[in-house]
User: What shape does this take?
Amino acid sequence: MEADLVTRIANHPKYKELKAKRTGFGWWLTLAMMVVYYGFIMLVAFNKPFLSQRLGEGVMTMGIPIGFGVIVFTVVITAYYVNRANSEFDELTDAISKAVLK
Amino acid sequence: MSGFNLSSNARRVLTLATLCAVSFAAWSAGADLGQATKQATNWTAIGMFGTFVVFTLFVTKWAAAKTKSASDFYTAGGGITGFQNGLAIAGDYMSAASFLGISAAVMASGFDGLIYSIGFLVGWPVITFLMAERLRNLGKFTFADVAAFRFSQTPVRVFAASGTLVVVAFYLIAQMVGAGQLIKLLFGLEYWIAVVIVGALMMVYVLFGGMTATTWVQIIKACLLLGGASFMALSVMWHFGFSPEAMFAGAVKIKTDLALKDGKTAEVAAALGQ
Assistant: This one.
């Protein structure tokens, strides 16, 4: 019975769609996060003068807004993921369980 | 829940191992190696801390009364909403480090301090993107449960338990040294007493209250930290007329003055101040 259920879920077209979409989406967002983070760390490692430029006349350097930008990016990208997971992916999951358990 | 199939014996061994890890951490935190000077016994601070501890112990008692099954113990019987759980995870994540340590690190080493706070933020979304939903959809308690669902149980569980205990023990050592130093600094208690109190409290919360108590204590902590940090940030920004530029200039000035007081020349002091 349970093995049967597993095959039915695994063969359901919507399950395949969900799996492909969600995995791809997760990896793309991970990639974006990695590019931003390692880009930032590379800047710190290899281009210090760029980050220590003064902004205008004051003491604040270029690095501060860029650093805060990385933090804000993290929050925004997470919000984007949560938003899509709660709407699109959850709808697909519901549709699959309805179709399979019927 | 069918996912939970550890025998009660194995569970007892795990609990025992956890206790050993905590005692090991407490023992390793043993020698007082901090710089914090012991203050005169501060009864106001002890009173506030005591009130908070009594309050959270009541939360634990309430939670212990509700905890009746493995599912209650490990997942609060599924009775935690997403928002509550989010707050609790935030409470875990925002340790005293983000409250005191990171701001101090930014003050002491400027931009280098900011890199720390970015570094440990970045790991979280990646876990969310790749792991979180699979865990939820399988309805298991821990990552080890998920791995054991697919692979041979015993080696996976032994590996996961060893990894968890090693990481947790070393994390606990740092946490308990920090908590011990903080209590010593605030209350003027002996260091070893501070470490023993903190260790005993942690064990009481988790062993008796399970996930319900742990979650609620974390939620309370998250609200206190968020409230306190927002209040401090707003007050500081208000003091500098909501201009980050003025705030950084103020910080640089304080550091320059401190270096001058140490007997450094004006140029060296100005360079250190930045």
